[in-house]
Amino acid sequence: MSDDLFSKAKGVAATARGTWMQKGQRLQLPKGLQTSRQPVELAGAPGEEGSAPAIEGPWGLEALRGRLVELSARGAAATLTAAIELVVEAQQAAEPVAWVTLGNATFFPPDAAASGVDLAALAVVRVHDATAAARAAERLLRSGGFGLVVIDFGGESFAQQGIEVPIAHQGRLVTLAQAHDAAVVCITEKPGEAPSLGSLVSLRAEAVRLHAPEDKDGGERGYHVTLRALKDKRRGPGWTRTTKLRGPPGL
How many Å apart are CA 124 and CA 101, to the nearest integer? Predict the structure, then answer.
């Protein structure tokens, strides 16, 4: 890891924050994936009747600040969709965002732009392994310039390969996230029954994608993205959050 990453992170953060502050208003999303987002369901933990959510829901940038979060799934995964939604939310709130990714995986930039992401204001860091990713995230957080850091472990199968983020790195990520009021979101690929990245993960949610029922009025079918809490140290596991999205043409 280059020693000048810290200074580069500070520069990127300052530039990104200045860009957002100059705009002085929330972004208007372009026509695309996120413009059709419609809340469908917010269910409480098992045994609780569905009711109006609290002012701060279980998911979103404000709910994730100061926490180490894991987004996981296997098969019809929607982890990237859920993470991109957080990126858009953070950028709308004038919070610079960093995306740390392994060399063999990343998001598809055109889809991210269509979802409302300002690619010019998104800092992307490529590393070679999980430990380097954690170290890069630490330096980005230590700069104090980022409100959201996403660590994309891509196709790494932690359950099968026994790879996990060392507890020392987890502790530093949590400490830095709390000190700078930032959220750290890790994306992994594994089944729900597999263990989380580690004991310091505050929230682990499974993100899956299902085709939505056809619109009675003959509109676009789209699909549902459901988040299910497998682990939540604040609210307890079991809550779900479902949104209906319109996918790219031909989906």
Answer: 7
Instruction: Pull the structure tokens for residue 53.
Output: 């959510």
32-70 pLDDT, tens digit per residue, is: 333 333 333 334 443 344 443 333 589 999 999 999 999
62 Cβ neighbours under 8 A, 6+ residues apart = 56
Q: Which of 114, 122, 119, 121 is nearest to 30 (CA)?
A: 114
pTM of the entire structure?
0.75
Domains of the chain are 5-23+31-47+59-245 (3.40.50.300)
Long-range contacts of 245-251 (CB under 8 A, 24+ apart): 245/33, 245/34, 245/36, 245/37, 245/81, 246/32, 246/33, 246/35, 246/36, 246/220, 246/222, 247/33, 247/222, 247/223, 248/33, 248/111, 248/114, 251/223
Q: What is the DSSP letter of 239?
A: -
Q: What are 69's two structure tokens?
A: 């979060």
